[in-house]
Amino acid sequence: MRKSIATVSVSGTLTEKLEAIAAAGFDGVEIFENDLLVCPLPPEEIRARAADLGLSIDLYQPFRDFEAVPADLLARNLRRAEHKFRTMERLGADLLLVCSNVSPEAIGDDELAASQLRLLAERAAGHGIRIAYEALAWGRHVNEYLHAWRLVRLADHPNLGTCLDSFHILSRGSDPIGLEAIPGEKIFFLQLADAPLLAMDVLQWSRHYRCFPGQGGFDVAGLVRHVLDAGYTGPLSLEVFNDHFRQAGTARTARDGMRSLIALEDTLYGAAHPAVPTGFAFAELADPESLGGMLAALGFQRTGTHPSKPVELWEQGRARLLLNATGGDAGLVAIGLDSPDPGAAVKHAESLLSPVLPRERAPREARLDAVAAPDGTEIFFCGTAWLDDFRPSGPVAGPLSGEITRIDHVALTQPFHYFDEAELFYRTVLGLRPQESLELPDPYGLLRSKAMSAAEGAVRMVINLAQVGGRDLAWQHVALACDDVVAVARRLRAEHPELLLPIPANYYDDLEARHDDVDPKLRELGVLYDRDAHGEFLHLYTVTVGRVFFELVQRTGGYQGYGAVNAPIRLSVQHAGPH
C-alpha cells in the first residue's frame, strides 16, 4: 500500500521534513498548515519540491470549527474555506481535512451540521477539492467516527467523505468493527497513530503522547484490517503528535515511521519473522584492562584471542563474553544473538531500514553481519562458525562449567529521544515481544523501563531511558544466570567483597515485613529477592566499572520478571558513588 506521513510528525523546517520523508521512502505527505505558514517559500515552490522528491501531497490539514454554526459564523467560515481552497490549488493538494467542531458556538443539530458540510463540499467541488470529515475524540457534539459517518451520509455529496484516525477511535474505546459499515469509497483518508495506555484527558493524550504503530498499546493493525475490509484503497498515513519526536532528528524519526508501516503491513499480511533469535551468542564489552579481573573473580576463563582484532573470548558454562581493547570506557558495545538463519535475519533487518554495518573480515574468518540498534549497540546475527575464529589463548584451568550457566538478559540505556525507536527496533527487527512498560522511582526522578523477550525467555532484553532528572544514566548491564546465587554470593563475599554492591539494611527490614519466609542469609550476603504467582527471583549486583555492571540472577518456577521492585534500591546505591 502507499505510505504517507503528516509533516507534524517530524521536526525541522518544511523543506527539511520533505527531504527526510522522501529519503525514508514515503510515497506521499500530509501538509500541516502551520508548517506551510511559517515557510518562506510560496505554495507553488513547495509543490515543485515535493514533486522533485517523488512525493504526492495527499492531504492539507486541518480546517477547524466549521459545521453546525449560526448563519453569520457560517458566512465567515465559508470565506475561510475559500482561502484554503485557493492555497490548496497553488499547493497541488485536492483533499482537505475538516475536524469536527469543538467551539462552544457549535449547535448540536445533525441536520444543520450535514447541510453545512454539504455546502462546504459544493464549494470545494468548484475547485476540484474533496472534503474528509473527521470526528475528533474531544469534538463538542461529534466525537465518534460513526456519528461523523452519519453526517457524511446525511449530507450526501460526492465530494464529502470521512477521515478515520486510529487515535480518535481507539482512545475512546470505540469498537472498530463498525468501520466495515462505511463504504470504502467514502473513506477518503486513513490516519494512523499508536499511544501508550494512559488515564488522562484525551486532548492532552493526543497532543503529547501519540507514537508510531507498534510503539504503544493500541491494536492499530486490527483497526486497519477493518478499514481494508470496508474497501479502503488509499494510503496508510502517519499522524503523530509527540514532544520527543519534535525534538529528535528529522531523518531518523521519518525512517522510524517508515519502519513502523512496513512492520504493520507484515502483520496485516501474516508475515512471520524469519529468524527470531534463540539465545545469546555473546555480549561484547570494551576495556579488558578494567573488566578482566572482575570476570576472573566471577569464574570466567579466558579461552581465546581473535587473530586479527584485539578481542578476547571469556567463557563460563554457555555464557560467552568478548573483551574488546579498541578503546573507550568499559561498556557494552555489541550483542551476538544465536540465529536459526543469520542470512534471513539480516535480510529482514534490511527490509526494516536497518542496513548491515560495514565490517572488515579476513579471508578465512566467519561471516558475521551486524546492524546498529538505535543507541549504537551493534547487534550480530550468529551461527556457530564465529567461535572457530578464536585461537586458544593457553591452557584452560579446569572445566568451563561453573556457577554461571548462561546470559539471562542484557539491559541497555537509551538516549532521551530514542526510547520509542528502540522499542520498535527490538520488536520488529528482532521479533521480541514487549512486556509491561514501567516507571521506577529513582532518587532524581523516574526511570522508564521496558522489557522485551523471545518465546520462553530464550532472549531477554531491557531498555531503559538514559536521562533521569537531567542526569545521564548511561549504565548498562549484563545479567548472568546461575543455579545457586546464594552460593555465588557467599564465595564472592569471602574472596572479593569489594566487587559486590552494598545493599542497605533498611531494604531487608522491609523485605522481612513483606515476606515471613525469606532466608535470613540474604541480608548477610547482599542478595535481593522478588516473587510472583509463578516463582521466585534472587539476584545480586556488582559494582559499576566504567558504564557497565553485572547482575547474577536465579529464577525458580515460572518467574518471568526482572526484579523491578528492587531497581530503586540498586539505583540509589549506584548514585551514591564508588564503594
From TrEMBL:
<dbReference type="InterPro" id="IPR029068">
    <property type="entry name" value="Glyas_Bleomycin-R_OHBP_Dase"/>
</dbReference>
<comment type="similarity">
    <text>Belongs to the bacterial two-domain DSD family.</text>
</comment>
<keyword id="KW-0456">Lyase</keyword>
<comment type="function">
    <text>Catalyzes the conversion of 3-dehydroshikimate to protocatechuate (3,4-dihydroxybenzoate), a common intermediate of quinate and shikimate degradation pathways.</text>
</comment>
<dbReference type="InterPro" id="IPR043700">
    <property type="entry name" value="DSD"/>
</dbReference>
<feature type="binding site">
    <location>
        <position position="477"/>
    </location>
    <ligand>
        <name>Mg(2+)</name>
    </ligand>
</feature>
<feature type="domain" description="VOC">
    <location>
        <begin position="406"/>
        <end position="543"/>
    </location>
</feature>
<keyword id="KW-0560">Oxidoreductase</keyword>
<dbReference type="InterPro" id="IPR037523">
    <property type="entry name" value="VOC_core"/>
</dbReference>
<dbReference type="GO" id="GO:0003868">
    <property type="term" value="F:4-hydroxyphenylpyruvate dioxygenase activity"/>
</dbReference>
<feature type="binding site">
    <location>
        <position position="134"/>
    </location>
    <ligand>
        <name>a divalent metal cation</name>
    </ligand>
</feature>
<protein>
    <recommendedName>
        <fullName>3-dehydroshikimate dehydratase</fullName>
        <ecNumber>4.2.1.118</ecNumber>
    </recommendedName>
</protein>
<feature type="binding site">
    <location>
        <position position="551"/>
    </location>
    <ligand>
        <name>Mg(2+)</name>
    </ligand>
</feature>
<feature type="binding site">
    <location>
        <position position="191"/>
    </location>
    <ligand>
        <name>a divalent metal cation</name>
    </ligand>
</feature>
<dbReference type="InterPro" id="IPR050312">
    <property type="entry name" value="IolE/XylAMocC-like"/>
</dbReference>
<keyword id="KW-0223">Dioxygenase</keyword>
<comment type="pathway">
    <text>Aromatic compound metabolism; 3,4-dihydroxybenzoate biosynthesis.</text>
</comment>
<dbReference type="Pfam" id="PF01261">
    <property type="entry name" value="AP_endonuc_2"/>
</dbReference>
<dbReference type="InterPro" id="IPR036237">
    <property type="entry name" value="Xyl_isomerase-like_sf"/>
</dbReference>
<feature type="binding site">
    <location>
        <position position="239"/>
    </location>
    <ligand>
        <name>a divalent metal cation</name>
    </ligand>
</feature>
<dbReference type="InterPro" id="IPR013022">
    <property type="entry name" value="Xyl_isomerase-like_TIM-brl"/>
</dbReference>
<feature type="binding site">
    <location>
        <position position="409"/>
    </location>
    <ligand>
        <name>Mg(2+)</name>
    </ligand>
</feature>
<feature type="binding site">
    <location>
        <position position="165"/>
    </location>
    <ligand>
        <name>a divalent metal cation</name>
    </ligand>
</feature>
<keyword id="KW-0479">Metal-binding</keyword>
